[in-house]
Amino acid sequence: MSKKHKRQKQRKNFPWPLVVFGGILLILAAFFFTNQGGGDGGGTPSIAVDQQKIEYGDQKFGTNLTFAIKVTNTGDGTLRFKEEPYIEVLEGC
């Protein structure tokens, strides 16, 4: 009879408030994780550049050339770069 009484007492001591509190914390963390973009209205960003091709013609090796391009966000969301943008040379070297 004492074993039966101990089992019932152990069930009553289960930390339900702790479990409920942990569940609420998980729900709050999921809410903040999904809304971390903040303030951009949930739109989709879209990138556009003013020049698709930059042509300098034939140049001597070792000549430093500079150019400027304008990058614009034409979408309705916030445009963020995960890595530093880079330029790829498609022809010539």
Primary descriptors:
elongated, 93 residues, mainly alpha, two-stranded antiparallel sheet
Could you please describe the fold and organization of this structure?
With about 90 residues, the chain is mostly helical. It has one domain (about 1-75). It contains two helices and two strands; from the N terminus they run H-H-E-E. It has helices at about 1-10, 15-35, and strands at about 45-50, 70-75. It has a two-stranded antiparallel ribbon with strand order 1-2. It is elongated.
Give a quick rundown of the structure.
With 93 residues, the chain is mainly α. The protein is 32% helix and 6% strand.
Topology:
Elements: H1 2-12, H2 16-34, E1 47-49, E2 71-73
Antiparallel strand pairs: 1-2
- Number of structurally distinct domains: 1
Low-confidence blocks of residues: none
SSE order? HHEE
Strand content: 5-15%
Structural class: mainly alpha
Helix content: 25-40%
